[in-house]
Write a structure and sequence with these properties.
Blueprint (H helix, E strand, L loop, with lengths): L1 H16 L13 H13 L14 H12 L5 H10 L16 H22 L1 E12 L25 E9 L4 E6 L5 H13 L4 E6 L8 H9 L4 E5 L10 H13 L7 H16 L2 H6 L11
Parallel strand pairs: 1-4, 4-5
Antiparallel strand pairs: 1-2, 2-3
């Protein structure tokens, strides 16, 4: 003991600073293996590699390395590797397997630039539209509590829901309509009427492929009002390209998930307050277009 004590005292801070930093542990992966793991995490999901995980956690990467190279690392070692590679835990964006990359590329490189150019020519404002369903039992976020004591959130046993259709522009404009019922062609038509009611500029409205956007009544009305509004369709299965999706996420996380309405009227009031605040804060609305997948429309 004395020998070790003397050794440490003699070396002092200098001895400590000379210790190797970075990934610690007996077993390691080499540079080539490291590059392969990084690429797999970037390009694939665990279940695509026949691993029993939905997302890339430390445990999933641990199993990948074991299956690929026969090297067993602790999850702490894996965590240090991930940190050294610049990989951080992030909330993923959902994409449908049915999404067609070629159509997405065409939208980003050809179709949307053409819409943008046409909007400038016709002095039009581009809006992105979407619908969202809101349920009283939606829960988001985490709550601190003593270790081992899971927090209990009390809420009414009566379930209720509302729907909303809304649209935003990269100029910071917001329009919304809350409905107590199903979103269909009739509802969409009412929203379109409200959207153009007090607008001086023509509107280019970007929508998804929902059947309500393509009814005979909607198409007939659009033809009659083509000098005031025009519809453009996103590629199929591409909600990540719709800036309005980020408004819906914000609403669900910070209003529906965290505030506990006791009835439908209170839920509606909470949603109206949130959306009206967004209407009065153009800078915040413009921030939705800063998200990676919709930056093309900023």
């Amino acid at each position: 003991m004395k020998r070790y004590g003397v050794n440490i005292r003699q070396r002092g801070k200098r001895g400590i600073s000379n210790k190797k930093r970075g990934v610690q542990g007996g077993k390691k992966i080499n540079g080539k293996q490291s590059a392969e793991v990084r690429q797999l995490i970037k390009d694939k999901l665990p279940d695509q590699l026949k691993l029993a995980f939905g997302l890339w956690t430390r445990e999933a990467v641990q199993q990948l390395i074991l299956a690929r190279f026969g090297i067993e690392l602790s999850r702490w070692q894996v965590g240090r590797y991930l940190k050294s590679w610049g990989y951080t835990p992030q909330k993923p964006i959902s994409k449908a397997f049915e999404q067609n990359p070629a159509k997405v590329k065409a939208w980003l490189e050809q179709q949307y630039p053409a819409i943008k150019k046409k909007a400038v020519k016709e002095n039009a404002v581009i809006y992105f539209e979407d619908e969202v369903g809101m349920r009283s039992d939606h829960q988001a976020g985490k709550s601190y509590a003593p270790k081992g004591q899971t927090p209990v959130i009390k809420k009414t046993g009566q379930r209720f829901s509302l729907n909303m259709v809304s649209a935003i522009s990269n100029k910071g404009h917001v329009e919304f309509m809350i409905l107590d019922g199903t979103f269909n062609g009739k509802v969409f038509l009412e929203f379109l009427r409200r959207l153009i009611k007090h607008k001086q500029q023509k509107i280019f409205l970007v929508v998804d492929g929902h059947t309500a956007h393509k009814t005979k009544e909607v198409n007939a009305w659009l033809e009659d009002n083509k000098n005031r509004i025009e519809l453009f369709f996103l590629p199929p299965y591409s909600p990540d390209l719709n800036a309005e999706e980020y408004v819906n996420q914000d609403l669900k996380t910070n209003v529906i998930g965290k505030k506990r309405p006791i009835n439908k009227a209170q839920m509606k009031s909470n949603v109206e307050d949130f959306m009206n605040k967004r209407k009065n804060d153009r800078r915040q609305v413009q921030k939705y277009f800063h998200e990676k997948h919709v930056r093309y429309a900023a």
